[in-house]
Amino acid sequence: MWKWGLQLMDSRHINAEVFFYHFFAFQSKQEDMKIVGDCTNITRSFCDLTDVWVNMTEMYIPKVVGFRGNAALVSCMGSFFLAMDTLPLDPPEFEIIGFTDHVSVNVKFQSVAPKILNEEELQFYLALIEEQSGGIVKKNFYKLSVCVFPELPSLEKVATVEVIHINRKKKVWNYNYDDESDSDNETAPRISAGGYTTHGLTGRLCPASVSSATLEDCSDPATEECDLPEPKAGAEALMAPGPSPWQSECTSRGYQGRGNLLQDHFSEEDSSSTEGSGDRIVFNVDLNSVCVRALEDNDDSEVTPVLPSRPEETVVLEDPDETESDLLVASGEGTQLPFPGPSAECPWPEDTPSDKSDTSESDVDMGDGYVTR
Amino acid sequence: MSAEPDVIRKCTWPVCLVGLFVTGILSLDCSLLDVHLRRVTWQNLSLLSRMSKSFPIECLRESKAFELPQEILSHTQPLTRDIKEAFYEMSRQAFHIFIQDTFRSTWEEKHLRQVQIGLDQQLQYLEQCLEEEEEENEDMREMAEDEWTQSGAPVPQLSNLELRRYFNRIDRFLKDKKYSHCAWEIVRVEIRRCFYFFHKFTALLRRK
Fold first, then answer.
1. What is the ipTM of this complex?
2. pTM of this prediction?
C-alpha cells in the first residue's frame, strides 16, 4: 500500500514528550493551512496522507510541527507535486477469471490508494478504455474488473505466444540450394509448451479485438519522470501517472513491466540454426492481433523515474506564518525525508536526547505498520 | 569563364539534400500526433519540475489562483479538433510566457531554452496537423460545428478564449510582480499544472 506522508529522518530527538501536528495547503490557493485530523497531537512524525492528497494536478505544501508542551520544537515544510514527485506506481496485476462468451479480466492495482482510483486517474482511463473499444470492453469499477468482449479469436492466436517480432524472417528449411541463405544468422526457434515457436523474444499480447493495435496502443504502465530522449517517431512514450489506458486490454502473460519489452534479441542469440528441420515449427501469427513494442535505446530513459531530488538536497525551511509557537529552537542537524522526493530540512535543538537510532534513507519500517518509500 | 555556375551546381545538390533532410525531420505523421504531443508535453512538464529544486516556501504567500479553465476539456463529446486547437492555443500562450527573457537569473538558461524548444516543437506539430486536417476535412468540420451548435453546447472557439484569458492572468501577474523570483516560481508551477492537465487529455486525441 502506498503511503504518502512526512517522516523526520533524524529521529534521535524524538521522544514521548514530543507531539506532532500535520498540516497542508494547496499552493494554488491562498488559504490557510488545513490540519490533518488523523495526524494531530500524535507521537509519531509520520502521517499517512494517501487518502488526503488526491488531486494530481495540485501542488501540496505539507507542514509538520513537533511540540513539547507549548513550545514548537521542530517545524518542517516542503512541497509536493504528486504527478512528478512520487515514485512510480507498481504495474497492476491481470487475472483472467472467466472465458466464455467474453473474457473477464481482473485488474488489480496494488500501489494506488482507493481514493485516487475513485476520484481521478482510474475513472478517467477506464472510461477511456470503454469508449475507445467501442463498447467491447466493459468496466466494472467496483470490482475492479474489466470484461473484454472480442470476437472469439482462433486458438492459434490466443495460444501461448510470448514472442512476436514483425521483422523476423520466416524460417524455411534450407536444403543448401541457396548460397545466399541467411540461415546462419537465424536461430532455432524456441518451442513453447503449447507447441508454438516463441522466437526468443518478449512482448505483450493484445486481444484480437484491438484491431487498431499499434505501437502506441500498448503502453507501458505508469512510470514517472524521464530524461529527455531524442524524439523518435513511433516509439511508445505513454507515460501516465496512473494506469495507462490500454493496460487492461493486454494479457499479462509473462508481463514483467518494462523488463519484458521487445529487445533486439536477434543480435544476441546464438546462431545455431543448422539443426535438422524435423523439430522446427513455423508459427504464423496475425500481426494485427498482437502488440509489439520496439524498444529504442533511449526509451528506458523516458520511462525511468527520475528522483526529483537527492537526499543531500534540502529545502530551506522557513515558516513565515508560524503563529503556534514562539520558541522555535533552530539548531542541530537537518533531517531528510526517507523516500525520494523534495527534501525538507528540519532544525532540531542540539541538546535534545535521542532514544532512537537513525533510520536509513531507503525503505524504513516505522514499526507501526508503515513503510516509507 | 565564370566559375559561378559550377559553384552553384556543386552547392545546389547538397542544399537540396539538406532541405529534404530538414523537411523530413519537421514533417510528422499526424496519425501519431497524440503520441508526440504526449511525449513532448511530458518532457516540458519534467523540465519545469527540474528548473527549480523545489518551490520556495517564502513565495507561498504570493500564490495566486489563476483558475485554469479545466472545463474546456470536460465536454461530453469534445471534438478532436477542439482538443488540438486548445493544445495549440495553450502551447502558443505558454511559449509567449517563456520567451520573455526577463528571468535569466531565476533559472539556468539551458533549462529555459529546452522549454522553449519543447514548446516550439509542440507548435510545429500542431500547426502541421491542423493544416492537414483543415484541408482534408473542411466539409466534415463544418457539419460537425453545425451539430455542435445545434445541440446547445458551447461554441468550440470559446475554449480558446478562456485559455487566452487564463494566460493573460498569468502574464499580468508577472508584470504586476515585476517579474520577481517568486512570481516566476509561481508561474512555473502553474504552467506545469497546465501541462499536466493537457497531458492527461492527449489520450482523447486518439478518438477517430
1. 0.72
2. 0.52
